[in-house]
Amino acid sequence: MPIVEVVDLFKRYGDVPAVDHIGFVVESGEVFGILGPNGAGKTTTLEIIEGLRRPDGGRAVVDGVDVQQHPREVRSRIGMQLQQAGFFERLTVDETLQLFAAFHRRALPGSDVIHRLQLDEKRRARVDTLSGGQLQRLSVAVALINDPRIVFLDEPTTGLDPQARRALWEVIGSFRREGRTVILTTHYMEEAQHLCDRVAIMDHGRIVAQDTPRGLIRTHAPGTTVTVLVDGGQVRFDALPGVQTVQQANGEVILLTSDPLGTVHALMELNRSGEAIFHQLRVEEATLEDVFLQLTGRRLRE
Amino acid sequence: MRGFWVTVKMGLRMYLRDRGAVFWGIVFPLILMTLIGLAFGRSDSPSFTIAVVDQSGGLLGRGLLEGLRQVPVFRVEEAGDTEAALVRLREGRLTLVIVVPGAPSGEPIRAYFDQARVTDSQTALVILERFIADANLRLARAPQTLRLQATGIAGRIQLRFFDFLLPGILAMTVMQTGLSGVTWVVATYRQRLILKRILATPAHPAAFLGGLVGRYTLTSLFQMAVIMLVAVLAFHARIVGSLATLGALIVLGTLVFVGMGFAISTVSKSPEAANLLGTAISYPMMFLAGTFWPKDFMPKAMQPVIGLLPLTPLVDVMRGVSARGDAVTAYLPGLAYLAAWGAVSFLVAAKRFRWE
User: Fold this and answer.
1) In chain B, which residue's Cα lies nearest the Cα of A99?
2) B135 shares its domain with B178
3) Contacts of A103 in chain B (CB under 8 A)
4) Mind listing the pLDDT tens digit for each residue in B78-107?
5) Which of A96, A132, B281, B331 falls 20 to 30 Å from A164 in CA-CA distance?
6) How far is CA A80 from CA A5, A25, A53, B112, B262, in A?
7) Which CATH architecture has domain A223-285?
8) Structural domain for B9, as ranges
9) A102 and B192: CB-CB below 8 Å?
10) What is the CATH number of domain A2-218?
11) What sequence ranges are listed for the domain ABC transporter (chain A) (predicted)?
12) CB atoms closer than 10 angstroms to residue B305
């Protein structure tokens, strides 16, 4: 059953379309990811669905409520984690959650939310003494305080160290187990691949593909990638055995191949005969990164 | 009004943890009151130190010295050397230097004064002139046909300097809270996307903004109480009018200037710019509106401008009530003018308010 429906959404800043006629449907209970580089329009999309911004066209329906007509009603049903938003620095973690709890019609006990986000030790600490990871967790705690059916997370793990990122992934995973729907944006393909049931890949305000991570890879980057750093020599990579597509980025050549063994053999042969010189050679299962590369010709983070 | 009371409650906690806010709201006004009180407050019973250089060595000099010592406001010293006395005059340690000429020669008695200190010098000179005129009459043995007896009476209200200063300081503090405090706080909340966080909740934005107004109203009343207490206990200021009326005026003033603070924060891009603009508006107002000294001290050409400042009616009514026990009804036009400033400010703020 769809819980969020986005139809032909359009938003421009000046002459530049930030969100360019996009549409998608999120099913109840799934984790839906919007993956794309910075400036792709992910945050704008999220903020329109949350009712924080008005679209110039199209509509979004959340839990059966039209966002533009009843933004406040939508806000009472969802939890939002905002990117880069600050807190009242002279309040403690406890007080901050009390404050936001009071702005909602219903709220979970603050101590429960604090416990779930492992902030127990910082309950009485002032917000201005928290680390970046702790602030990020507090931000998610605020999104959870009204016990929402749908949680929006805008780049929840940006700027976190790998350990803190893993910890937050655990929390987001627990949201799914509780039957909450999660919509998140990210520019980390590992995050999308690890967390999301379905992913929409966004670039320049458009959704270029959407499917399950597996489905995206199968459709757009089936097989294996062989990556080499080329140092001189003219090689017709697309003539090598099994090679389907050739992408070049940052001096690297990325070959998508259906016959990894054959491709690697051919490369080694070229290297031995001196026709071309390669440094480094990586053979990997294709990832969402490769999907993005196939679809846009660019890497997610450049 | 979901969110109103929690905003007030948490706002008060933040205020008490904010040393800056407590400094500007309580300590700074008290320092100002002390400094201004020390600078101007002693003019209640003036006394002038004068030096007499007696070059006559005779009866004239002796008589004059004796006579001057009878004048209550003069502290008379004998000086041997004119030059040395003039140096002390230049240094501000004397108000007048009187030189009695040697051997009867028709030369006048000379009085030197410091042109830079007009008020003190003129007062002392007037007293001296009257003293000389009296002495002349007595020497001429003229009959005293007209007599004057001046009797000082204690008026119903003896307005002393701190009685006058206290309500001005209170009004100034209210203005500063709005123009410097609110501008900074709201612009900071906006820049750090804290306002956006509030907007992300289902609460009505007015509940949060109303909560901010409530918070500032309560902190203003608290600041007023502390400042009054210090003024009364340490400086013996007297408050004649009702405290409840003064409290109500503080509330009105807070509403108006918080509204202006909101309005200013909407036209500024950064907290720094908002604070600078608020300060640029509040400082001239602080010195012009009769806060520290009577408005009449300002040049005539400035008076129309002074009359238009929103702080002026607040200072007037608070001073009237606090120092003279006037009824608020005597100040209705001024209060209406003040309220109009508040209404316009809130309209501007409501129209232009941005959450991020």
Assistant:
1) B6
2) no
3) 2-3, 6, 198, 201-203, 207-208
4) 888 888 888 888 888 888 898 888 766 677
5) A96
6) 17, 19, 14, 79, 27
7) 2-Layer Sandwich (3.30)
8) 2-39+160-352
9) no
10) 3.40.50.300
11) 4-229
12) 12
